[in-house]
């Protein structure tokens, strides 16, 4: 797979050199997990198989699971040496778990996917190739997945469709499915974004607020086979208005310097 290195103009933002004597992977896959004992090991194995042709590491973040997720990940590490297991001492939510994984990552490019197994790791190479392609726009910082044929309940699909429509109208982020966990982006671009709970649902809008480019690609979606969803429609509605208001506030106060140069 041919890779597009960061342009000279963006190298200061996107380059992440390895430690002395260490060879950095090209891609870090961050998988936040909370009570996913039944799927954790299988998902790690799937990620490793899907990225057999790409230099990568897998950063699984256990968000203080109450079941055997951590033990399953530690056992999987013996079979998948590129797996790293990061643990939270207290449950901090999906956005914080993703940020923990990105901070720990050693690659300049990051892929994220949900830890419940509904995202297909086989979609990661395509998103990554789209991000690093030689003719990508220099400002491109993220390729976000959009789920096709969602394997969720009708109620969840309807609620998601309505929420996406409201968000697009208010934020104008162009994202049809911002709740999809499958995304590939430059690490340094992500670390320039404001961090807050539930920010993972607003990444396209936050990227564009910083002047970065975002593209989208269709990805598959699988039924949940273990555990249960950590979100409900009512639970999402309870925080959606506050989150949307907060992101609109951030967007209204963004200032664009148009171009930055060192003289």
UniProtKB/TrEMBL annotation:
Alphabetical list of InterPro entries matching this protein: Glyco_trans_2-like (IPR001173), Glycosyltransferase_2 (IPR050256), Nucleotide-diphossugar_trans (IPR029044)
GO molecular function ontology, one term from the record: undecaprenyl-phosphate 4-deoxy-4-formamido-L-arabinose transferase activity
Pfam families per the UniProt record, alphabetical: Glycos_transf_2
Key words of the record: Cell membrane, Glycosyltransferase, Lipopolysaccharide biosynthesis, Membrane, Transferase, Transmembrane, Transmembrane helix
Protein name (database record): Glycosyltransferase involved in cell wall bisynthesis
UniProt GO BP: lipopolysaccharide biosynthetic process
Entry GO terms, CC: plasma membrane
PANTHER family given in the database record: UNDECAPRENYL-PHOSPHATE 4-DEOXY-4-FORMAMIDO-L-ARABINOSE TRANSFERASE (PTHR48090:SF3), UNDECAPRENYL-PHOSPHATE 4-DEOXY-4-FORMAMIDO-L-ARABINOSE TRANSFERASE-RELATED (PTHR48090)
Domain Glycosyltransferase 2-like: 28-190
Gene3D superfamilies assigned: Spore Coat Polysaccharide Biosynthesis Protein SpsA, Chain A
